[in-house]
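Protocol step 4 of 6: structure prediction from sequence.
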Amino acid sequence: MNMKEKKLPSKKTKKKESEIKLSMADINKNSNIEVDHTIRKIKEKELRLTLMWTCIFLLIFIVSAFTVGFSVVKLREYANVESGNLIITFNEKSDNLDNIVTLDNNSILEYDDGLKSVPYKFSIKNNSKKKSKYKITLEDDLEMMFLDECDQMQFDKSKMYFSINNDIIGIVSDLYNGSEYVVYEDEISSEDTLNFEFRIWVDRSYINNGHYHGVINVEEVE
């Protein structure tokens, strides 16, 4: 029986096969390099975008915080209120805002110390060409009493003293005219400005714990 001889591959065939294998390896290697390079570029781009947006948001936050903070500071320094021809400017007093009066146990003082306490400062400017009458009143801040849950522990107004520019001194309960507590009223000349320092404290003889929340109001009257 004749058997066919197995034909061995020639040198040329082996060379071609090795070249094919080498080409495939190069292709795979190049493909992996290109993929890695692409991934690296995408990650670098994502990182740049993340950093850029982070900086943008941080800048917006800083600008917003500065703007709000600046506005609050300006509001706390000066609060302007108009009443007819009058412009009333309240300045900040200690931790209280403009015309908001707050008293607590630290406000219980000796008479002389009360006259030296930090005042609520405000000014009245008349913008008209004629004299104007004005009135300064002290009004109970009922909303703040409700929020602070202290409406049942308010200081007795017969034990509360006040002063205007340390010239007019009196007891708060004596200010009541049947409808409101009138601290002071007078006239202001045309285009004139008057400055006031209002002090209020509780007499040392007061022995109970207490609070007081009020508002200083200034208005033009006929």
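Step 5 (inspection) to follow. The helical segments are 11-77, 111-115, 142-148.
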